[in-house]
Amino acid sequence: MISWISKVWPFVLILALSGVFYATQNHRHDIGFFEDDAIYILCARSLMTGSYSDLTQIEKSPEVHFLPGFPILLAPFSVFAGDHLNRFKWIPWLLAMISGILTSLLFCLWFPHRWASSALAIFVFNPLPLLVSDILLSEWWLLCLILVAMVLLADLEGNYQNAFRKSALTFTLCWAALTRPE
Q: How confident is the model at residue 136 (pLDDT cuts 50, 70, 90)?
């Protein structure tokens, strides 16, 4: 029991400290500071009405510029957030923390476990993620999907008979293709 706690506490401490840092940065940009974040929310709301349309247009024309991968993720949150758009600002922080955890998990697969907390700290305390931690951009979601795909690929190595893992990898890669065109 004690050995398990001694392995986990550095991760919990790093995530807690980064949560404090990210929370202090969460007020710098409003939703709509970059046009993309507002459009992603509008696309998520249009998905909740049963179509994927451009709500900035008078006519309900289909949205063709922004892919639906990130709005699909945001759609359930749009019900929760309602008209309080600042609630969406916690999604980038959450995705950054998930990406950091996945990065440290990948690090554990390839390097000694004692360095995994260092990889997490370097990832979450990097100045660039801190600067954009309150901007609702699809890059965070794409990074999570890529890291999940890498974890699944590392897990599949040598064991190609597992249909669930292959299906999960296919689903993850398809969602990534629907998130960004790159």
A: confident
